Protein 1
Amino acid sequence: MGSIPPAGTIHSKSAVYPPPNQPLVPEETAKVRNWIADADSIAVLTGAGISAESGVPTFRGGGGLWRNFRPEDLATPQAFARDPQVVWEWYDWRRGLVAKARPNRGHQTLAELEKRTTKFTLITQNVDGLHDLAGSKNILKLHGDIWQIRCTRCEKSWQDRSVPLEKVPPQCDCGALARPDIVWFGEPLPAGVWSRARQSVQSAQLLFVIGTSGLVYPAANLVPLALERRAKVVEINPETTPFSENVDCALSGPAGEILPRLLSV
Ligand code: OAD
């Protein structure tokens, strides 16, 4: 990724629009709607914020999971090697939260956008499966899936939607300890998924960046990659992020409110 200039070196600065707590004005809506209408190829990068309105906690910011838990205790291979029971108890608790959540209007609008677009790729950092439930089809899960479990010995991976899990920590048929099939800090992204994500951003005319703090790499590299390719980049987030000043349009507000207005759904 060394050849990609850092965000901020490509586009002139644009103000975050609308200012927080101000309504989205018709011109901004019209501008982005035109970009959607003109684009044959759209990529979307989502983060925890798209599921916030479904009641799934984000990681950073007020109420974020990393306020109360340390990632190095729960979301690293070292933590799992040290205490698989504790790590699994945390995932079992999160599976319980996610099981109660339903897709919100943000997830639903993205599923509708996919139907209306010739080439559409939804790249998500989320493991909650809410994009699948909303009906999105072409999904690239950069960080895995909270409902998938993987054997630490034979690498078999299987789906288990039981809440709570029957046995913590779960085991594989081969008798070995199983782990969440999730990418932890310090682990590489699944190679095929990452290269397809890069390709879809490189060929996209329009990239939406929705509900991500932009602090976790390599996922965050997709934004400068799109800017370098001169794709239009639209951010949707109630807070400013490292991308906000460099994107073509930064829409400040909750995804579940802003996305339906862009598509009139
Ligand atoms: P973060 O928790 O870092 O950021 C969530 C973002 O969502 C913030 O920028 C919020 O302002 C924004 N947000 C909150 N409510 C929103 C709403 N209703 N609509 C739109 N945006 C909203 O989550 P991620 O950026 O996804 O990794 O975090 C990236 C990775 O860090 C996660 O995938 C996870 C975490 O550690 C792993 O588990 C490997």
Protein 2
Amino acid sequence: MICIFDLEKSFQEKIDKEIKIEPKDWMPEAYRKTNLRQISQHAHSEIVGMLPEGNWISRAPSLKRKAILIAKVQDEAGHGLYLYSAAETLGTSRDQMVEDLNSGKAKYSSIFNYPTLTWADMGAVGWLVDGAAILNQVMLCRTSYGPYARAMVRICKEESFHQRQGFESLLVLSKGTKAQRDMCQDAINRWWWPSLMMFGPKDNESTNSDQSIKWKIKRKTNDELRQQFVDMVAEQVKLLGMTLPDPNLKWNEERNHYDFGEINWEEFWNVVKGNGPCNKQRLVDRNKAHDEGTWVREAALAYAEKRKNKLKTKAT
Ligand code: 3HC
């Protein structure tokens, strides 16, 4: 008789050999739960992430910028859908996940609880927020759970366009009038620290990291990815002729990395617990969008039912 110990041992061996875990494979309950937690939180982040940018579609300064922004927001919706589908393979329903998001029970990324105050925020969100997201997500293309890894491949291709368009938009502002340059710097100042928080708590406070790394759900720790992000952005910001709002940011020869200042962790946990500047508004907006979309879901279901009956009649 196979005991649980043997199952866990062969499961870990599979992971160590880089064999993907598929939905019908045996997996420890904790592996299933942790993937479900992470993938659903990720899906919710994509969906809530549409709100701060959607806010600017009607105010984009040109047709070109408007077309780019619409495409980007649509991409986020698509990412949410791939990820909900991947999460469903772990035994939950999309309806349940949406209910958890709309009731405030489920988490989503802290970053989407900050307001987008000026047009320059669209550039800063693209460059910094999508830039942080993509570092984390490139690693997830090699995550051990097959459906999650496959969903991430396409998502990453689109995210890299998001980051580039953000940087390019800020580059234009950085070469503009004094008012445009000030707006660009102000957006960078406001989005820098929240972007660093996206990577999650420090490694010694990250409750899930050790096990997730052992199971190759995560390939790098929160602090490793955060450092990679700081090193990348500290160089890119020079091309904009702007600065990052951190007096302690300094190249460290010995470490071969940039040193940077302490993140305000109190602010981070406050936002995660629902008390950030926009948490309440985001949930109101999500619930409104969900309620207003009821007729679309009902119409799609009615159409699917009609088609099924038609096919049935044809077959008989
Ligand atoms: N915002 C909100 N909650 C966060 C958080 C953040 N930035 N960072 C961590 N947390 C939460 C975790 O969810 C966890 O809570 P839980 O145990 O109740 O679920 C707790 O804080 C402790 O953190 P851990 O480090 O132990 O958690 P993880 O091991 O899950 O690591 C993570 C956190 C690095 C965000 C990881 O979950 C991950 O890689 N997720 C997938 C990527 C993702 O969700 N990115 C979000 C942004 S997506 C995006 O930006 C869309 C783009 O199109 C713009």
